[in-house]
C-alpha cells in the first residue's frame, strides 16, 4: 500500500485533504533517485551539469550547517536555515540568466550562492554588521527582505522597467507560503497580470509560516490561485532540483518573450527551525520531519548520480572536502569580521547628508569623546 | 526618595510573588476571556506557538483555537476582521507580531477603527485592543525596532497606552478591553522579562492617568515606556550625587492627563523629556508644547531639554543600536547638566 502510494504520490503530506491529485506535481527525479519524464517539462542536462548541481546543493547545506553552529556559539544574532529547501533554491537560481534580477526573502542563501554572492556577505547581515555585503546590481540579487511579501511588488515594478526598456531579461520574486496571504503579494499578482510584467513568482511552500501550517493560509493548493489572477500556476516538487530547474527556466523564458508572469509553487519542507530563535517541536510532530527526510533533496541526486555511475566515490569525497574548506573559511571570515564604524547610522539616512543629521553626528562624536576622557 | 506607584504593589508582594510583564499580560488576557465570552484574541503565531514574545503562552490550550486564533500572515486582515468583530459586539484583542507591521494595517487602524464611531454619529463603536511589541534593544534592526507611538497618539479616535510597569500592565489591559474605543496597547520588548508584583485583587487601572513614579525637588523627568524604568534608575544614581529627580510617566499618551506633568514642572523648575523614538516630531514634542503653553512656563529655570532617539533608522549592530537611543548614562548625564545649569 505504502509503496503504491509513494509511486503515484511521492510527496508526503500529499494525501492531506487540501492537496490536489498528484499528476499536478512536476517531477523529474523521484525521491529514490530515479529519473522520470514529464510530458510538459523536459530537461537536457549533461553529467557534468548534474555533478555541479550536486556540488551546489551540498555546499549550501554545509554553509547553512556552519552558520547555524556559529549562531549557537553566539557569533551570529540569528540564522534562517534553508535546510530541506536546497533543491528549490539551487534549481531556481541556476535557471536564471545573467541579466535576470532576483528579489529574495531572508532565506534564499542557495539562490545567493548561484548568483556568486560570497557566503560571508550574507553572514555579515546575520551577524549584525551590515544589511548584506553584496552588490545587488553587480550580482543581480537584491538585498534580503524581511517584511513579509514586500519584495513581490519590487520585483513586479522592476519587471515593468524591463518591459519598458525592452530588455531580454526577467525578474523573479521569492516568497514563502505564508507570504501569499499578504495584501501586498496579491496586489503584485494583479499588477503583474494586468501589465503582463516579465516576472516569475517563485513560492517555496515549506508547509509553515513560523508555527502556522499552510492550511491556515490557503484552502486551495497555492499554485491554483494563479488562475484567478490570470496567469499560469505550476506546482513542482521542490525537492527535485531537476524539475525546479526545468519549470523555472520555462517560466523565465515565457516572461522574457512577453507572455507575462508565472506562479511557481515549489512544494518542499523546512527541515529546520524557522530561525535559530524558534523551536519547531512546539508545533509539529517528529514523524512529519522523519517522513520528509526520506525526500531529502540532496540524497536523491546523490542516489541518482551514484547508481547511474555519473559520479563516483572520489567525486563525493571531493565535494565533502570542499565543503569542509568552505565551512572553515566561513568560520574564520566570520570571526575576523570587523565591527561597523560607530557612526554608521548617520551615513545613509538620505541620499545627501542633511544639516540636521550632520549636526547630530557631530554632537554624537563630541559626546562620545566626553565619555572617553 | 519613595517610589510612589510601587508602594501598593510592595504591600502584597509577599502574598502574590513576582511575575514577569508578559505573565501579567497573560493573566489579564485569561481573566478577560474567562469573564466575557465576547473577548477573543487573534494574531500570527498566538496559538500553539504561544506568541512571538511568548505572551499568549498556553492560552490556546485553556481557551481553544477559536478564541486564541492563529491567523494568515495578513496584518490588514487581522485588524480589519477585528474591527468587524468589534462592530458586531465582540471584544477582539489583536496581537501584531511587531509594531512595525502595524504599517500593513494602517487603513484599518487609522481610517476605520479610529473614525467609525465619529462618522456614524456615535451610533456604533469599535471596542478593540491592538497589542503590539515596540522598541529596540533586541538586535532586530530597522524594520523590527521602531517606536511609532507618536503616529497613533496623533490620530483622534485612538487611545494609546504605553504601560511601563508589571504592577499596572494587567490592570491597564483590562481597562483597555473594557474601553468602548479602539485602544493601541504598546508593550516594550525589553519589559517582557522584567519582574514585579501585580497586586492581588487589584482590578482595572484606569486609562488616562499620568503617574508620578518618584518625587524629587531638583528636576522633573518625563519618560515613556522602557525609558521610565531607565529614568528611575538614573534618578537613583543622581540621588547618590545629591540631585533629586521627580519621574513622571504619562502611561496613556492619548488622551493625555497633563496636570501631574505641569505640576511637577512647577515644583521643580527644570524638565527633561526622555523617549526612545527619534526626537523629530516625537511625542515629547507634545509634552514640551503643553509645558510651554501653560503657566508652568513661568516656573522654568532652564530651557526644556529633550533626550530622544537619533533621527535615523535603527542599525543592526548591537553597539550602534544602543548608541541610537538614550541609555542610563545618557539620562544621568543630561539630568545632571540640567539640574546644575545656572538659571
Ligand atoms: C509583514 C510581516 N508580518 C510578520 C512578520 C513576521 N514573520 C517573519 S517570518 C514569518 C513567516 C513567514 O512564512 P513564509 O512566508 O511561509 O516564509 P518561510 O519563513 O516559511 O520561508 C513571519 C510571520 C514579518 N516579518 N513581516
Ligand atoms: Mg513557509
From TrEMBL, chain A:
Transmembrane segments: none annotated. The keyword Oxidoreductase applies. GO terms for biological process: branched-chain amino acid catabolic process. InterPro entries: Alpha-ketoacid_DH_E1_comp, DH_E1, PdhA/BkdA, THDP-binding. Residues 59-319 form the Dehydrogenase E1 component domain. Its cofactor is thiamine diphosphate. One of its GO terms (molecular function) is oxidoreductase activity, acting on the aldehyde or oxo group of donors, disulfide as acceptor. It holds the Pfam family E1_dh. Keywords: Oxidoreductase, Pyruvate, Thiamine pyrophosphate. This is Pyruvate dehydrogenase E1 component alpha subunit. It comes from Klenkia brasiliensis. The lineage of its organism: Bacteria, Bacillati, Actinomycetota, Actinomycetes, Geodermatophilales.
Automatic annotation (TrEMBL), chain B:
Signal peptide: none annotated. Residues 19-194 form the Transketolase-like pyrimidine-binding domain. It comes from Klenkia brasiliensis. GO terms for molecular function: magnesium ion binding; oxidoreductase activity. Keywords: Oxidoreductase, Pyruvate, Thiamine pyrophosphate. CDD domains: TPP_PYR_E1-PDHc-beta_like. The keyword Transferase does not apply. Its cofactor is thiamine diphosphate. PANTHER family: PYRUVATE DEHYDROGENASE E1 COMPONENT BETA SUBUNIT, PYRUVATE DEHYDROGENASE E1 COMPONENT SUBUNIT BETA. This is Pyruvate dehydrogenase E1 component beta subunit. InterPro entries: THDP-binding, Transketo_C/PFOR_II, Transketolase-like_Pyr-bd, Transketolase_C. The keyword Oxidoreductase applies.
